[in-house]
Amino acid sequence: LVTCGPHALHSLLTALGTWGLLRALPRRCGGATLVWTFGYLLFFRTAGVWGLPQPPPYANALQLLLTLKMVSLASDVQELREAGQKEAAPEETEELIGCLQHCPGLAEILCYSYCYLGLLTGPFYRFSTHRDWVRGPAPAPRWRRVLARVRWAPALGALGEAAGRLFPLAGVRDPGFGARPLAFRLFYMAPVFFAFRMRFYVGWLCAEAACLAAAFGAYPARARPRPGRGPTRPCPRPRSGEEVPAEQWDYETIRTVDPAGTERCRRFREGLRTWNMTVQWWLAHYVHRHGPRRHPALRYWGAGGHWEALGGTGRALGGL
Q1: Pick from 196, 320, 210: nearest CA to 254
Q2: What is the three-class DSSP state of 250?
Q3: In this structure, are residues 56 and 319 in contact, taking their beta carbons and an 8 Å threshold?
Q4: pTM listed for this prediction
Q5: CA–CA separation, 251 and 153 (whole Å)
Q6: 119 or 95, which is more confident?
Q7: Are 204 and 122 in contact (CB under 8 A)?
Q8: Which of 54, 125, 226, 247 could pair with 129 in a Cys bridge, judged by C-beta atoms 3.0 to 4.6 Å apart?
C-alpha cells in the first residue's frame, strides 16, 4: 500500500461501497456490486479527466484485483441469502461448496481486501479461501515444494530480459518503424509479446510461491480444488495440519499459470485454460454463467476487456 500512496484511497472507497451495498441491497448485491466496482474502475482510469492525479501502475493493479474480490464476495453473499430461502436443487449442490456461511462484517471485508498475499500480482481467491486460511489449520510449509514452483523463474526471466533488450517495446514508437517492411513489423510483434509473457510468468510464479510458503489456499487433495474456485467436493476441514500427510495437500486453488501449457497450446481456448487461470475462472463463474441467459459470450469478453483495458497488472509486472 505504501507504493500506492494516497491513491490507495480509491480501493478503500470501493471496499466501503461494496459493504454498503451488501447491507442496502441484500437480494441484488451481486449485480449492484458488479456495476459499482466496474463503474468506479472506469472513473479510476479516467482520473485525469476529472482533474485528479493519475494513479500509478501499482495502484491500478490493486484496484483491478480488488474489483474481482468485491464482485466475488457480493455474489457469494447473494447466493448465501438465496440458499437460505429455498432448498438447493441437486445440480446446485456442487456450486454451493466453498460458499459463505455468514455475511461478513466490515472488518472481515477489509482484511480480505488487503491481505498481503496476491495484493498486487494475484492470484485471485474467494473470501472463503481467505477465511479457511485465517481459521486454519494449515500444513507446515514444504520448502522443496516452494522452490519447485519457482525453479523455472530465473530462466524465464533471463529469456524475457534478453528478448526485451534485443526487441524493445520502445522500438515500435520510433518514427522510422512505420517505414519498415510489413513482414518485419509483423515479426517484431512475436518477440515483444514473448518478453511480455516471460515477465508475467516470473511474477505469477513468485506470487504462487509466496502463497505456498504461507500455506495459503491449501486443501486436502480429496476436495479437488480448482484455480480461483477452491474445493469442488465436500471435505471436512482437518483439525490439524498433521492430520493430512504433507503430500496430500493440494494448492491448485492459487495456481495462476501453466507456462509450459501456455507455450504449447495451439488453440485460443486452450490458452485460456492455462493463462491467468484464477481470473479466467472468475469471468466464467460470475459473468458468463451467473448473468442473463442472453449473450453470455458478449458479457464475458466485454467484462474481460474492460477489466484488462489499460491494465495496471501488466505495467506493474513489467517493472519487475
Answers
A1: 210
A2: strand
A3: no
A4: 0.88
A5: 18
A6: 119
A7: yes
A8: 125
42 CB burial (10 A radius; 0-12, 13-18, 19+)? exposed
Instruction: State the chain's mean pLDDT as an integer.
Output: 86
Query: Are the CB atoms for 252 and 225 separated by under 8 Å?
Result: yes
- Residue 304 confidence class, pLDDT cut points 50, 70, 90: confident
Of 230, 210, 227, which is closest to residue 277 (Cα–Cα)? 227
Q: What's the rounded mean pLDDT across residues 93-99?
A: 54
Q: Where are the alpha helices (DSSP H) in the chain?
A: 8-24, 29-45, 57-85, 90-96, 106-113, 127-135, 143-149, 153-166, 182-213, 259-264, 268-274, 277-282, 296-308, 312-318
Please tell me whether residue 49 adopts helix, strand or coil conformation: helix
Task: Give me the torsion for CA of 57, 61, 62, 64, rounded to 10°.
Answer: 130
Q: Which three cell numbers stand for residue 2?
A: 505504501
pLDDT band at 176 (very low <50, low <70, confident <90, very high): confident
Contact 307, 64 (CB under 8 A): yes
- 178 compared with 311, residue with greater pLDDT: 178
Closest C-alpha among 119, 302, 108, 174 to residue 294:
302
pLDDT exceeds cutoff 60 at 296: yes
Domain ranges of the chain: 5-141+214-318
Strands 249-250 and 219-220 come out as antiparallel
Tell me the per-residue pLDDT of 121-169, one tens digit each, with 9 for 90 and over.
989 999 999 999 998 887 877 889 999 999 999 999 999 999 999 999 8
Specify the pLDDT at position 93: 44
Contact yes or no for 320/203 (Cβ under 8 A): yes
Q: Residue 266's pLDDT is what?
A: 85
3-state secondary structure (DSSP) of residue 129: helix
